[in-house]
Design brief:
Distance between the termini: 24 Å
Largest sheet: 7 strands, mixed
Strand order of the largest sheet: 7-6-5-8-9-10-11
Shape: globular
């Protein structure tokens, strides 16, 4: 028996659910769970279906589903397999540590194929957990050369996603285009109020009462890609800069791991600059 996840997005119209379930029944596929959402403003339909059965031909099932749906429909039949990812880092370890520990104990929902860093700081930690680490120095190079060296490494692997685990370099539009829809980033939620260096110190100096973090897909527009998940936590006058930084790192880890879990379980649709998420 195959366990399948089927993702469908298409223009909305009457009878979509009936058409989809008819095709699945004809293929002797039993639906375990089905979630739907209609974006009424854009007249768009989204569904995530979990089902089991004997699937002999994935391409044939996708073809039959497309034949039952409106033009411009997108269908993705996913067999249950772990995603393959690369992690890009700079010096901060907290997000990488969460990813690699979960990877070590097979609870990440993905396989970390490599870590790439523009400093050597995190090599020892990565290699202690048997993850290949590649150092790509950015000093004395233009952005194109730096990114081409990263791509040469990435091309050695068959990857589903790139995770920026506090990778503090702005990627070019060309790089993002090559990995469109595959790059996930985490950042503090002080943007645009606290841009540039030391956002937590800026927050402290302003006396903020809430801090947070956002995980999102990377697009050409800096830190403006489709949001996957966000969280906040309350702080008060008792928090100094160190305490704010510590609290910020904790929430960054939480948000990034939650976003990755949703993505690796194929629960996220990107629709324009928004996401539709079936939890």
């Amino acid at each position: 028996m195959n366990e399948l996840t089927i993702l469908i997005s298409c223009p909305d119209q009457v009878g979509l659910v009936t058409n989809i379930t008819r095709v699945l029944a004809a293929q002797q596929l039993n639906i375990i769970a089905m979630r739907e959402f209609v974006d009424e403003a854009n007249k768009a339909f989204f569904t995530r279906i979990a089902c089991i059965g004997n699937l002999d031909n994935k391409a044939q099932l996708e073809k039959k589903l497309l034949e039952s749906l409106p033009n411009e429909a997108e269908v993705n039949v996913i067999t249950q397999q772990e995603k393959q990812i690369a992690v890009l880092v700079t010096k901060e370890y907290h997000c990488l540590a969460e990813i690699l520990i979960k990877n070590q104990f097979k609870t990440l929902g993905a396989n970390v194929k490599c870590v790439i860093g523009n400093y050597e700081s995190l090599r020892d930690f990565s290699e202690k957990l048997s993850i290949p680490y590649f150092f790509v120095d950015h000093v004395g190079k233009d952005k194109a050369q730096f990114e081409n060296e990263i791509k040469e490494i990435l091309n050695q692997f068959d990857l589903d996603y790139l995770v920026l685990a506090k990778f503090m370099r702005i990627l070019s539009a060309d790089f993002v285009k090559d990995y469109a829809g595959k790059v996930i980033n985490i950042h503090h939620s002080f943007l645009p109020a606290f841009i540039g260096a030391n956002p937590y110190r800026q927050a402290f100096e302003r006396g903020v009462k809430i801090i947070g973090a956002t995980a999102h897909f990377v697009t050409d527009n800096l830190d403006e890609g489709p949001i996957i998940t966000q969280h906040t936590t309350h702080i008060d006058h008792n928090f100094g800069v160190k305490e704010i930084v510590r609290a910020g790192k904790e929430i960054e880890k939480k948000v990034l791991l939650e976003a990755l879990e949703l993505i690796f379980e194929d629960r996220v649709f990107v629709s324009g600059n928004k996401t539709v998420i079936f939890k």
